[in-house]
Structure formats: C-alpha cells, structure tokens
Amino acid sequence: MLYWLTALSDGGDFFNLFRYITFRAGGAFLTALVFGFIFGKPLINVLRRKQGKGQPIRSDGPEGHFIKAGTPTMGGLLIIAALTTATVLWARLDNPYVWMVLFVTLGFALIGFADDYAKVRKQNTAGVSSRIRLLAGLVIAGIAGYWAAQYHPVDLRNELAFPVFKDALLNLGFLFVPFAIIVIVGAANAVNLTDGLDGLAIMPVMIAAATFGVISYFVGRVDFSDSLGLHYVPESGEILIFCAGLIGGGLGFLWYNAPPAAVFMGDTGSLALGGALGAIAVATKHEIVLAIVGGLFVVEALSVIIQVLYFKRTGKRVFLMAPIHHHYEKKGWAEPQIVIRFWIISLILAVIGLATLKVR
Asked: Can you tell me whether residue 170 is helix, strand or coil?
C-alpha cells in the first residue's frame, strides 16, 4: 500500500525510498514486530479468558508437559495478524505472488483455527477430522499451485528446477499442480508436527523465512539471477516483504512463547506458517531447496511416518515417542536443550540451502 507513495516522488526525495524492496522489507519487519509487542499481551489475556482450561495436554505425552496445562492456544493469530498487516502496508498490492502466499497463509490459518477451536471446546486433542483438514488443505494448495503456474514465465511454467545444476529443468506438465500440492500441504503438516515444545517451531520457521526472503530477492532480480545462474522469476522479489513481516511477527510471538510459554502457537499458526513456506518455495521455483532449508521439519515428519508404519508392521516402536523431539524428551534431554540444538541444526541447514545459490 505504501508503495504508492512513490507517485509523490520526483526521484530524489524521501518518497523515492518506497521504490526499494529492501527499504520496504525493513518497514514490514518493524511493523510486524511492533504489532506483536503491542497486541501480544492483550491477545493472550483474551485467549486465556475465552479458553478457560487452555489447550488440552496429551495424556500419553512426556510428563513434563502436564505443568503446561491451562496455557492458552491459538497464539498463531498474533503472527498471522502481524505479518498480514505488515505485508498489506509495505508490499506492492498488484503483485500476484504476494496475494498467492497470503491466500495460502490465511487459508491454512482458518483450517488451524477450526481445529484449535474444536480441541478447546471439546477439551480433547481430537479436533477437526483429519480427512476434513486434509481435503481443505488440498483445495487451498491446488488453487495456489495453479495460480503460481499461470504467473510463472513461459520458459519455467510447470518446470521443476534443481539446485546446483544450473540449467537442469524437469517439465512436470499437468503434474506440476499435484506436485505443488504435495509441497505446500507437506510443509504445512511438517511444521505442525514440529510445534511441540516452547519455541521449537517458530525459530526454524523464521530462519527458513529469512533464507527464502534472500532467495526471492535474488530470483526476482534479473541482474542477481543472471550473475548467480538462477532461474529468473519476475516480480517474485516482493515476497521478501512477506518474509520480513513473518520474521517480525515471529519475534513478537517468541517474546511470549519463550519458555515457559504464555501462549502456544497452535495449529492456527503452525499450519499457516508451514503452508506459507511451501507456497514461497513453489513461487520462487525452489521446492527442492525447501527440503534442505526445512530439513528439520522433514525429519520431524519422517519420524512420525516411520513410527506409524513400523508399529503397524511389527507392533514395536523405532522411537520412544514421535515426533522425534519427544523421543529426546523421553531420553531425558531438557526441553531448552532440545529446542536450542534444533535451532542450531536449522541454522546449519539454512546455510547449506543458501550455498546452493552459489554452487552451480
């Protein structure tokens, strides 16, 4: 919205700053951060008052989680409101990729909100039927995949790009949209599974957002993409504004979610943020890089899949408890120890993901 202030510029004044994505990204970050600090406490008070007993705690979970009983959930509303406000204020509103990512974010936020609401109302961990959640997610992701394909340049439409290999492209044809669905829905559910300890999911999400903010900026500029041997995706640089808003909103939320958490993100936040990362990867043609940068989320999801399949086949468990962060809790690791070590792993994976931009 504020981009239109450039119409008042003569090319050498303050209003000219609004032409620059980097300046507007800084504005989005600060806007979301301040939003989180201002509205965080009032939102938590409202959630605590409305929810009463707060988020239900799994009876078969680690014993250390029982002391968290009464903590309100749906804290993801703070992040979503902050990043949406920042994005609408600072991004170009004629950009299709910005609206595509926002559509996925808000769509999955609604799915998560419905699930959180059902859990709190029923005071059990069942929530909304998994089939209904999956179906809704498939529809949202399918629309987003088709949306992205229509705005990708002709030479990249329906193509899968590979990191490291400069000119390697695989034409997926009509399979591109199903592939995009897998990426977006998979990312949403992987982040959702990771969100099990105070602060565990939000920091890796912010690290991934920062990484994809850099990627979107590079692939959205013809000079940088040409210099690095990347596939140029016109207009995708505006996604940096969204990523900056996500980081600012995430930090505002982490202020209240740091152990001991005053509020949980809930499915409202985890599904929305995971879906957003998947949508950004699809928009920027870096779906495979997302699997690297978000490797922690991949491992968390795989640990659940492996546990379920192995148990059905043998009646035994590979992990003491899945997702894998609960396995380490059962082994006696302190919660802050798990969280910080997982943050470190996420940072290392982000560096590896960024390295693929240069290694060609």
From this structure: strand
Task: Identify the residue whose tokens are 């006696």.
Answer: 332
Q: Classify the phi-psi angles of 8: left when phi > 0, otherwise alpha if psi is within -120 to 50, otherwise beta.
A: alpha
How far apart, in Å, are the Cα atoms of 309 and each of 184, 316, 323? 23, 10, 13
- Give the HSE-up count for residue 126: Cα atoms under 13 Å, Cβ half-sphere: 5
Please choose, from the candidates 129, 153, 151, the residue with its C-alpha nearest in 3D space to the C-alpha of residue 279: 151
Q: What pLDDT was estimated at residue 61?
A: 62
The DSSP call for residue 234 is: T
- Residue ranges, the chain, pLDDT below 70: 7, 10-12, 57-66
Q: Where are the alpha helices (DSSP H) in 52-126?
A: 76-90, 96-122
- Cα gap 239→278, rounded to integer Å: 13
Tokens of 105: 């974010």
Shortest CA distance to 61 belongs to which of 129, 127, 125?
A: 125
Q: Over the stretch 318-346, which tens digit does the pLDDT of each residue have?
A: 999 999 999 999 999 999 999 999 999 99
